[in-house]
């Protein structure tokens, strides 16, 4: 495919030999899959990152993200992809996409340091006609109020000399069904022409592009999606706590409610929220709302409830042990799964860490099992790893399942565990080994014996 021919944003401004169709800035969970998809669509892609480790690894065909194998990276290199730490490549880019981290500052507000430093690097090399897109999650107004002025330090004017747009990344690491190509891409341009240029660019490798009125609406769409998840997870977490006291089986209620074909989406309780998005992004929005002089109460409440869940897990663990005449301080506790979600290696903001910290503070002897994590430290202290799952479960006084990795099968857990607290409802799902996909709500599994509980 001749990407340049089909894309007004890709009109050559530089000598053909030096030109990249795309430079992706930040080659992590978001940037690398984007680069891979663009390479597959026939674009000439350069990856720019500040980390020598990341760049050297990629140029040696070693993947560091879950959704791409090293073989995938090898194929990218064969098709002309290169990674570099040299920002000079930006001068030869037709399109530049910024995928750098947007973490929280120590005070809990937005830390746009990587975004501003990326924008400054681009400004130093920006050429007329280039399309610049911000994909990093951030508060409404960032593209226009923070990124645009930095880019314009180049002397070029956004919307006149170069195109500027925001397009949130919606990647769901570990999701085998939805990837870059078949997840609709939201795009908001600084001007109509900027939006059009960005839509045409993504049209090279994304099936559906959804235009918003401007950059702010696209920024807000992402935060709406993540705040919606955050708030609804908090809702079921709060319900889980009082349903336990009321003697209501919430998992059963959720399964029943989920049979309604409209107006309801099922969310499930858990040990807290993790990952780079749900615990962090809503803070970006509440920061922006606070500049108006009032709080974003839904987010604050959701944060309060979700961050209390690790303590609730400890309370339930303690009760489970006490019912068997044991004390947490003299118990061997095995944590199953320490990543923030199933079947990936990403540990960022994982609730396993506060759970482990609280258990250690109460004197429990900890170990963990996780097929995706070879070593695990909490506050600088190594937690011993168990690799034989069945033996580890059998030897622990209490097993706490924190992440529902595929290998944690209900039958296996129930067979070997002395005491088990399942914080993910694995024991309430049909056993995949039983081969039944659609089991009616009333046929859902229940823990089979004393000492086995679901959150
Ligand atoms: N991980 C996800 O599931 C996900 C999903 C949707 C959106 N996002 C958002 O996408 C953005 C990137 O997240 P991620 O998970 O890919 O982060 P990441 O930490 O996996 O990768 C970011 C990369 O950017 C590099 N980097 C940092 N500063 C840089 C700079 N100034 N110039 C060039 N490279 C730089 C880092 O070395 C790193 O390799 C964030 O805003 C995040 O909120 C992430």
From TrEMBL:
Residues 334-429 form the UDP-glucose/GDP-mannose dehydrogenase C-terminal domain. Transmembrane segments: none annotated. SUPFAM superfamilies: 6-phosphogluconate dehydrogenase C-terminal domain-like, NAD(P)-binding Rossmann-fold domains, UDP-glucose/GDP-mannose dehydrogenase C-terminal domain. Residues 430-455 are annotated as: Disordered. It comes from the Bacteria. The keyword Nucleus does not apply. Keywords: NAD, Oxidoreductase. Signal peptide: none annotated. Belongs to the UDP-glucose/GDP-mannose dehydrogenase family. PANTHER family: UDP-N-ACETYL-D-MANNOSAMINE DEHYDROGENASE (PTHR43491). This is Nucleotide sugar dehydrogenase.
């Amino acid at each position: 495919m001749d990407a340049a021919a089909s894309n007004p944003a890709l009109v050559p401004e530089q000598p053909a030999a030096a030109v990249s169709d795309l430079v992706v800035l930040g080659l992590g969970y978001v940037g690398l899959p984007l680069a891979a998809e663009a390479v597959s669509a026939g674009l000439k892609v350069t990856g720019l990152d500040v980390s020598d480790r990341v760049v050297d690894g990629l140029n040696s065909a070693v993947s560091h993200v879950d959704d791409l194998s090293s073989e995938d990276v090898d194929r990218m290199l064969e098709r002309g992809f290169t990674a570099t730490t040299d920002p000079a490549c930006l001068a030869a880019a037709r399109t530049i996409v910024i995928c750098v981290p947007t973490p929280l500052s120590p005070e809990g507000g937005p830390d746009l340091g990587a975004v501003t430093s990326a924008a400054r690097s681009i400004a130093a090399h920006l050429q007329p006609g280039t399309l610049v897109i911000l994909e990093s999650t951030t508060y409404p107004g960032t593209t226009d109020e923070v990124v645009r002025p930095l880019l314009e330090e180049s002397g070029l004017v956004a919307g006149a000399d170069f195109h500027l747009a925001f397009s949130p990344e919606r990647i769901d690491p570990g999701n085998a069904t939805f990837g870059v190509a078949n997840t609709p891409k939201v795009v908001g341009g600084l001007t109509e022409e900027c939006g059009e240029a960005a839509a045409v660019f993504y049209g090279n490798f994304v099936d559906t592009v959804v235009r918003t009125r401007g950059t702010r609406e696209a920024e807000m769409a992402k935060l709406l999606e993540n705040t919606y998840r955050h708030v609804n997870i908090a809702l079921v977490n709060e319900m889980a706590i009082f349903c336990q006291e009321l003697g209501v089986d919430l998992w059963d209620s959720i399964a029943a409610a989920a049979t309604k074909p409209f107006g309801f989406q099922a969310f499930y309780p858990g040990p807290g929220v993790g990952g780079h998005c749900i615990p962090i992004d809503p803070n970006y929005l509440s920061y922006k709302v606070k500049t108006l002089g009032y709080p974003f109460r839904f987010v604050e409440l959701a944060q309060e409830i979700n961050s209390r869940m690790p303590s609730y897990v400890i309370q339930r663990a303690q009760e489970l042990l006490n019912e068997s005449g044991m004390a947490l301080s003299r118990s061997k506790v095995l944590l199953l799964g320490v990543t923030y979600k199933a079947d990936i290696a990403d540990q960022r903001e994982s609730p396993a860490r506060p759970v482990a910290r609280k258990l250690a503070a109460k004197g429990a002897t900890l170990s963990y099992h996780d097929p995706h994590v070879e070593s695990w430290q909490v506050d600088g202290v190594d937690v011993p790893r168990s690799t034989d799952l069945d033996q580890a479960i059998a030897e622990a006084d209490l097993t706490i399942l924190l992440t529902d990795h595929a290998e944690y099968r209900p039958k296996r857990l129930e067979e070997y565990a002395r005491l088990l607290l399942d914080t993910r409802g694995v024991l309430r799902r049909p056993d995949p080994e039983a081969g039944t996909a659609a089991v009616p709500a009333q046929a859902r599994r229940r823990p089979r014996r004393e000492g086995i509980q679901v959150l």
